[in-house]
Every structure is written in structure tokens, then in C-alpha cells.
Write a structure and sequence with these properties.
Layout: H1 3-12, E1 18-19, H2 30-42, H3 53-72, E2 80-85, H4 88-98, E3 106-110, H5 115-118, H6 120-126, E4 130-134, H7 136-145, E5 158-163, H8 177-184, E6 194-199, H9 203-206, E7 219-223, H10 224-228, E8 235-240, H11 244-252, E9 261-264, E10 270-272, H12 276-280, H13 287-302, H14 305-325, E11 336-338, E12 359-365, E13 371-372, H15 374-383, E14 386-387, E15 389-391, H16 396-403, H17 407-415, E16 426-427, E17 430-431, E18 434-438, H18 445-458, E19 476-484, E20 493-495, E21 497-501, E22 504-505, E23 511-515, E24 520-521, E25 534-537, E26 543-547, H19 550-556, E27 564-568, E28 577-582, E29 585-591, H20 595-605, E30 609-613, E31 624-628, H21 629-641, E32 656-661, E33 671-674, E34 677-686, E35 693-694, E36 699-700, H22 707-712, E37 716-717, E38 720-730, E39 736-738, E40 742-745
Helix pairs in contact: 2-13, 3-13, 4-6, 14-18
Length: 748
């Protein structure tokens, strides 16, 4: 097995996807998994504290894995200890919790740190210690000012922590700054009182780290799934023995799991073990995962080591950056802005000059210099089979610094409703995150080509495309179909005539479905099985019925007569008031129906759900969603021409389906009325993956249609995919809308 065979194996299982998130997780090979399985079958792992051969085998396995880690980082068991943890985050928590923080101690952390590393400062603050988060140039200023001028009391110490490589931008730090700190001290602390901690999770995945050449790193943290994909949930702290870091970690440990004490009395007598591996590994190790380490290191050795991976990813990154930087609109405006620190005299003591590594962080602008949100890029990329990361990548300091966001800006965005991980990518005219791509073992130049072609197709070509409704003025619209959706995400019911008001169709999206485990409303995009269920309600809103087809009922093993269920809307003792999360905020809702109704729907959706009323943001942004059938036909013509299945108009979940005059393949603007009912076009309806759900199968279409074609064609507004229009409604109370009604354009 060589490098090319492993690469070919991984790519063959990608099913055509362009994977560009190796900074998030490396991909494992089938060789690695098969070898792990073979080892697990060949040798059983018993508890290492037991007697017998199985226990002896486990002890030997653990020792072998520690030796492999030490060898990988070019150090020995005489100088360093390997402490296994459940992840890098757990390692940082262990360090923060074990250090004996008191007043006078200090945590000094780089702003490039991953959120979990940065959180050590919060632990320090809790015990009265000081903390500071410094940008690269501020770190350099501190280092240049530092002198080993005095020796504080032995109980006082400083923690100096930074990432070997930024998880956000990929910019690398100089590991030798640890030696500088040890020689000259930092922030008033003598070098002998400074514990140095390096987050090497990203760095070690694409760079061969030699700790023997960096003897002043007290604690080096790495993560195995970043290195070779499998196993997850296993990381290691490589701790230098007889170092400041080890000394203070031992002194501050206050929680002792199984196997960490030499003597323990329930009356309070405690004598911790002194060997780092024994003291800091609380409870039993994951022996089965350790077996996978043997396979991972064996594969790494056979393909030429991390150095071979580093060579490949550096070449790909250099090519990608060169091509991204020249992408521009016809007016000369740049499409891509790379986010990275420029290394110069103010930070070159801290940062590595060469732009090595595998990560590229960037943002996009339109031809006028306006920001294009990262979520827009993510959605389009998913349609094209490209896996990349967006947001702050759990590195808020680096993200906010490179985006130019102040702490006040971040707070203002939060107060405007933005929370980490949501879809709000532009808030108060400021970005909330960026796009990150990263390369790894199985990456090729084809991935670079696909990324560049994707950006060009979806963004540069937009300036040459007219909007879908350009030059079309619709004079009248004829209502052909009216659909009410009593429950958000479930199927609707066709009506010939229905009451309408300023809030839209009566009873439309009055109820929602929530999943108890996650305490939030679920959507058709998240659970495509919702398309199986049709919801019907009477005009007065007193009786709700849910039903499924005979075929779905048979698939689920429902008895005859169980194809539908009535949901009582009156209050009963089984209902509860609940707090759920909606768009990052908590809201109060109330259960609707009886346990039998919830059990029925849970069985269909294969999730523990409730029907609730009271979610404020479940309705459309405007009163009425109107879809032109001519536009649906035009879209389907394109799909059929490309050899794709046409889209059923139901996937667009319109309230009103219309024919227009002229019979234009377009959305329509303006105000229309019939009698006292007037509707006004407010804006196009932004679309998501929900339109790809095949209602007959309860799954999303594998070809990502029709959203993919919508994104590639002219159905865009502010770089978002749109289809159909949202209308405001004006009418007296008691007004109805009927199928067959003709609404004429009103004079402006």
C-alpha cells in the first residue's frame, strides 16, 4: 500500500463529492479500517486492571500506542509522557482545571486559539487569576518587552498558550517562541515560572512536528482524527516531564478518577499517583480506539509520513490561492478576498513567513464590492457536491480580527438575533463569518479546478445574467389553485375558497412540529418524511386531521383505519407548555392534541415529536406565497432538456398557484386586486434544500434538483436562490379568495 493507493481508495468512496474540509476531519481509508477490524478480531482487549492474558494484552497495547506517539514526535519516554484524552477539547479542559490558579497567576492566550483553548482563561478568571487574549502583533510586543528580571514566588505562574496553526486562516506560529519565553520570561514572569502549551491539532495533521527540536514546549496537544481520520474521540497530550507545565498540573489536580490515586480515603486522605499517564487519565481508556491508532500509524508510515501529505497540500494550496486571487468581475472588482495575516516586522517573531499548510479562508464580494454571505456560498457548494466549512470555525478571535469586527460589533450582531451556527451571514451590514477550504491526503488538482469553476459559475457569471422577470409586466393573474398548510412542514390541503386576511390564508402554518430531543421546531429540510403527512383543518380552526397514503401506512405496518388521525385542538391535561429554541432564542409553546396523536406522528417521522402552537416565526415572511405555473413549466423544460426529472409544483409549497397574462415565464411585480382584495408583491421567496424533497419517497433527490438548476440559472436575488413571490395582503375582515378569481394590475 503506497500513497497513491490510499488516495485512490479514499476518493473512490467519496461518491463524486469534492471534499475540502480536511481541517475539520481527515478521511480514513478502507485499509485502515480493515486492519483495525482484523486486529480487534485477532486479539480481544480486556480491562488493563484485570488479571489474565486479555489484561496483559491491553497493557501492552496501551504502551505500544504511547511509544508510537512519542516516536511520531521524535521524543522518548525518558523525556516525555503521553496522556490520552477523549479529544483536544478535553485536553484543554484538563489543563485549565488542573492548574492551581490563584490571584497573581496569569493566562496569556493567542487570539488565534480555538474556542476550547481560549476557554482556559475563563477557568483562570474564576479563581481570581488574570488573563489576556492577544493578537499576533500584541504577542510580539509582549515578548520583546519581556525580561527575566525577577523571580516571583513559587506558587505563582503564567500559562502561555497558542495554536501551532490557526484553525481559521491556516497561518502558522513559530514554535521557537516557547524557547524565547523560557529564556526571557513573559509579562513579568520569569521563564522558569511559565508553562507553555501548544495546540497542535491542526498543525500536526499536515506538518511533521519534532518536539526534540522544540524542548521548551511543556504541553503539546494533538488529535488523531485530524491526522488520519479514525478514530474520533481520542487525542493526546504530550507532556514534557520535569517541566514547569508538569509541575503545576500535578499541583492543581483536584478531581481523581479511577486509577489516578496511590491512596484514597473517604475521610479525605488522598495521595495522587506521580506518573503523568496514571495521574491525568481519569477512568478507563478506550482500548478499542487505541487499536485503531496502530492501524493509523502503520498506514502513515507506509505512505511516506506526514511530510508526504505536507508536500501535496502545500502545492494544492499555492495553486488554489493563485487562481482565487485573480478571479474578478468585468469591471475589475475582485470576487475573492483571502483572509490571512500579513507577516512583517510587527509580528514576524510570532508568525511563520511562509504561507504553508492546507487551509485557505476567504470571503466573496459582488461586482459592486458588496459582501456575499458565507451561507450563500455554503448552500451553492452543497448543490454542486462540494464540502467546505463556513462561519468562524470555532475560532472567534481570528475570525473577528480578520473580518474587522470589534467586540461591540459582535455584541450588536447577537442582540440582532445572530448566534453561532445560524444562517444569518450578514447582520447590520457586517459579515458574521467566512468560507474555509482545506486540503488533505486524498486531495488532487481536480478539487482545485472544481472549487474555482464553481465560484466562477455561480458568482462571476451572475453579472451577465438578467433577472428572471426582466422586461416582463404582467397585467392580470388568474388563481388556479389555493393550498392551506395548517402545520408548518407537513403537506397542505387544496381548497376552492378560503378566508384571507392581512396575515394570509386563515389557519395557514398555525401549528408546528417540534422534536423533543433538540427542543426546536423541525423543518421539511431536516426531516423529509414530513412530506408523507397531509394536514387538513376546518375553516373555523376547530378540527385538525393528519393522514398518510395507504402505501406509507403499509410500509410502517399501520393497521387498517390508522391511515389518519384526528388531533383534538381543545386543551387537556396531557398537554404541556414548553420552551423551545427558535432562531437562537427561546420561546414558549403549547402542545396540541393527545399522546396518541404524537405517537402516531412520531412513528411516521421516526422521531420523538409533538405538535405545538405558538411559534412566532413559523409563518412565511409575508402573508401569501404566490407561484406562477408558467415559471414552473419553464423550469421543468430546463430540467427535462438536461435529462432530469421535472419538479412537481407542490415542492414550492405555494399558497396560491396562478397563470399570468401575458403567459410569461416570470415572477411578477406590482399590485393586483379583485373587489376589495388587494395583494402587493413584496419580494421574491428565497429557497433552500426543502424544494428537493421528493414527497412520494420522503427523501431528498440525489441529483439536488430542482434547487441546483435554480441556482445555476437566472433565479437569483442578492445572490440567493429565489422562486415564487411573497405578497402582502390588504382586505376587509371576512374576505375570501376563490379558485378562478382574476386579479388585475392596479395603477401605481
Amino acid at each position: 500500500m503506497d500513497f497513491d493507493k490510499v488516495k485512490e481508495d479514499i476518493r473512490s468512496r467519496l461518491r463524486g463529492e469534492c471534499y475540502l474540509d480536511y481541517a475539520g476531519a481527515a478521511l480514513y481509508s478502507s485499509f485502515q479500517v480493515e486492519e483495525t477490524a482484523r486486529l480487534l478480531v485477532k486479539d480481544m482487549c480486556g480491562h488493563p486492571a484485570s488479571s489474565g492474558s486479555l489484561s496483559t494484552g491491553s497493557v501492552k497495547l496501551i504502551d505500544q500506542c504511547r511509544d508510537m506517539v512519542l516516536k511520531h514526535f521524535a521524543v522518548s519516554k525518558e523525556s516525555h509522557a503521553v496522556v490520552f484524552t477523549s479529544g483536544a477539547t478535553a485536553a484543554f479542559n484538563l489543563v485549565g482545571s488542573c492548574l492551581p490558579w490563584t490571584e497573581g497567576c496569569k493566562a496569556i492566550i493567542s487570539s488565534d486559539a480555538h474556542q476550547s483553548l481560549m476557554s482556559i482563561k475563563d477557568i483562570a478568571n474564576r479563581y481570581g487569576a488574570q488573563s489576556c487574549v492577544l493578537h499576533p502583533w500584541q504577542l510580539q510586543e509582549m515578548l520583546q518587552r519581556s525580561e527575566d528580571s525577577f523571580n516571583p514566588e513559587d506558587s505563582k505562574f503564567a500559562l502561555f498558550a497558542f495554536p501551532g496553526e490557526s484553525n481559521f486562516s491556516g497561518r502558522r506560529y513559530r514554535l521557537e517562541i516557547c524557547s524565547h519565553v523560557k529564556r526571557k520570561g513573559v509579562s513579568g514572569f520569569a521563564g522558569g515560572q511559565v508553562a507553555t502549551l501548544v495546540d497542535g491539532a491542526k498543525l500536526a495533521s499536515t506538518s511533521q512536528v519534532d518536539l526534540s527540536e522544540n524542548p521548551d514546549i511543556d504541553i503539546f496537544v494533538m488529535s488523531f482524527y485530524k491526522l488520519f481520520g479514525y478514530p474520533t474521540g481520542l487525542a493526546a497530550m504530550v507532556v514534557k516531564k520535569r517541566s514547569v507545565g508538569e509541575k503545576f498540573l500535578k499541583r492543581g489536580k483536584s478531581f481523581f478518577g479511577g486509577g489516578t490515586v496511590a491512596a484514597y480515603s473517604s475521610d479525605g486522605f488522598i495521595r495522587p499517583k506521580s506518573i503523568p499517564e496514571d495521574l491525568f487519565e481519569d477512568g478507563s481508556l478506550n482500548m478499542n480506539a487505541l487499536v485503531a491508532l496502530k492501524s493509523g500509524f502503520h498506514q502513515l508510515e507506509r505512505i511516506g509520513g506526514v511530510s508526504k501529505i505536507s508536500q501535496v497540500v502545500c502545492e494544492l494550496k499555492s495553486e488554489a490561492v493563485s487562481r482565487l486571487e485573480i478571479m474578478a468581475y468585468s469591471n475589475g472588482e475582485k470576487l475573492v478576498t483571502i483572509l490571512d495575516d500579513q507577516v512583517g516586522p510587527d509580528n514576524d517573531l510570532v508568525l511563520v513567513q511562509e504561507s504553508a499548510g492546507s487551509v485557505i479562508a476567504f470571503v466573496l464580494n459582488d461586482q459592486y464590492g458588496n459582501a456575499i454571505g458565507h451561507k450563500t456560498v455554503e448552500r451553492y457548494a452543497a448543490l454542486e457536491g462540494i464540502a467546505l466549512r463556513t462561519g468562524c470555525m470555532c475560532s472567534p478571535g481570528a475570525c473577528h480580527r480578520l473580518l474587522g469586527l470589534s467586540s461591540e460589533d459582535v455584541q450588536a450582531q447577537f442582540e440582532s438575533g445572530h448566534v453561532c451556527g445560524d444562517d444569518k451571514d450578514i447582520v447590520r451590514d457586517m459579515r458574521t463569518g467566512a468560507v474555509r477550504v482545506s486540503f488533505g491526503l486524498a486531495s488532487t488538482m481536480d478539487d482545485v479546478d472544481k472549487l474555482v469553476d464553481f465560484l466562477g459559475e455561480h458568482f462571476l457569471s451572475d453579472e451577465n445574467k438578467a433577472t428572471a422577470n426582466a422586461g416582463v409586466q404582467v397585467e392580470e393573474i388568474c388563481v388556479k389553485r389555493i393550498v392551506v398548510y395548517p402545520v408548518k412542514g407537513l403537506g397542505g390541503m387544496d381548497v376552492e375558497q378560503w378566508k384571507i386576511g392581512p396575515n394570509g390564508l386563515s389557519q395557514d402554518r398555525r401549528f408546528s412540529v417540534i422534536e423533543l430531543g433538540v427542543k426546536r421546531a423541525i423543518s421539511l429540510k431536516k426531516n423529509p418524511r414530513m412530506a408523507f403527512v397531509e394536514a387538513e383543518i376546518d375553516p373555523a380552526g376547530t378540527s385538525l386531521t393528519l393522514k398518510i397514503s395507504d402505501a406509507v401506512a403499509a410500509e410502517l405496518g399501520f393497521a387498517a383505519g390508522e391511515e389518519s388521525i384526528s388531533v383534538p385542538l381543545e386543551e387537556n391535561s396531557a398537554q404541556e407548555n414548553r420552551e423551545i429554541r427558535v432562531c437562537g432564542r427561546m420561546e414558549q409553546v403549547r402542545d396540541v392534541g393527545f399522546p396518541s396523536c404524537w405517537e402516531w406522528l412520531s412513528r411516521v417521522l421516526k422521531a420523538d415529536v409533538r405538535i405545538v402552537e405558538g411559534v412566532s416565526q413559523m409563518q412565511n415572511e409575508e402573508a401569501l406565497l404566490v407561484v406562477s405555473r408558467a415559471t414552473v413549466r419553464s423550469l421543468n423544460d430546463k430540467l427535462i432538456k438536461d435529462g432530469k426529472l421535472p419538479a412537481d409544483e407542490d415542492v414550492f409549497r405555494g399558497n396560491v398557484y396562478v397563470e399570468t397574462s401575458p403567459n410569461a415565464s416570470a415572477d411578477f411585480k406590482g399590485r393586483f386586486n379583485v373587489g376589495e382584495l388587494a395583494i402587493a408583491n413584496v419580494k421574491p421567496c428565497v429557497r433552500c434544500m426543502a424544494v428537493n424533497v421528493d414527497g412520494s419517497k420522503g427523501t431528498s433527490r440525489e441529483d439536488s434538483e430542482p434547487l441546483r438548476t435554480l441556482a445555476r440559472e437566472r433565479y437569483k436575488h442578492d445572490h440567493k436562490v429565489v422562486f415564487g413571490d411573497l405578497f402582502a395582503v390588504s382586505c376587509p375582515e371576512g374576505t375570501t379568495i376563490s379558485s378562478g378569481a382574476v386579479l388585475n394590475r392596479m395603477d401605481s
